[in-house]
User: Which sequence fits this backbone?
């Protein structure tokens, strides 16, 4: 059954799994759609499958868990890396030569003034290094490295790259990207 026109200023608790999808809430057999604004949501097990915007402080009373991509291949074999797969990418196998990493699904998600951070881990094998970045196939207007040039490949261990991407306009190349690398053996 459906109920329409319920208004309350009192706390309402639902002790069950709650799923929140774009413009709808589902709880067991109850389904509500056409939602444009939700305030003061309290519960556990909520799943958001679309954009969530928070216009205030975000506080976690527990740990923050973030998805990463376990690539199962080298960056040389998988140059395109989607934001939807997570902000960290763990590559396997020995890399060789100069590598370009292409972050996809970024331009349409970020607005002017937004930023995102990616981490990529590679096995440099004395020659593999990331020296170029693309965002959805376009070379950003500005790519900065400590000291002004891409780092050399490490001889062993794992190289951990961090890329902070700032969108500085609406064009496909309006980005400032700051890259750095640390070697872990």
Assistant:
């Amino acid at each position: 059954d459906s109920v329409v026109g319920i208004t309350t200023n009192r706390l309402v608790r639902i002790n069950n799994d709650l799923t929140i999808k774009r413009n709808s809430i589902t709880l067991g057999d109850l389904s509500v759609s056409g939602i444009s604004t939700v305030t003061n949501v309290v519960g556990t097990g909520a799943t958001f499958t679309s954009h969530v915007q928070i216009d205030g402080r975000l506080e976690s009373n527990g740990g923050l868990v973030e998805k990463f991509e376990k690539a199962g291949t080298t960056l040389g074999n998988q140059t395109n890396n989607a934001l939807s797969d997570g902000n960290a990418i763990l590559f396997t196998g020995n890399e060789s030569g100069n590598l370009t990493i292409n972050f996809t699904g970024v331009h349409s998600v970020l607005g002017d003034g937004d930023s995102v951070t990616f981490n990529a881990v590679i096995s440099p094998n004395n020659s593999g290094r990331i020296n170029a970045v693309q965002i959805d196939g376009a070379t950003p207007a500005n790519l900065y490295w400590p000291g002004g040039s891409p780092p050399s490949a490490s001889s062993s261990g794992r190289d951990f790259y961090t890329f902070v991407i700032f969108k500085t306009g609406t064009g496909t190349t309006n980005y400032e990207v700051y890259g750095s690398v640390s070697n872990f053996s």
The radius of gyration is 21 Å. Residues 8-16 have pLDDT under 50 and may be disordered. Residues 44 and 62 are 12 Å apart (CA to CA). The longest strand covers residues 158-167.
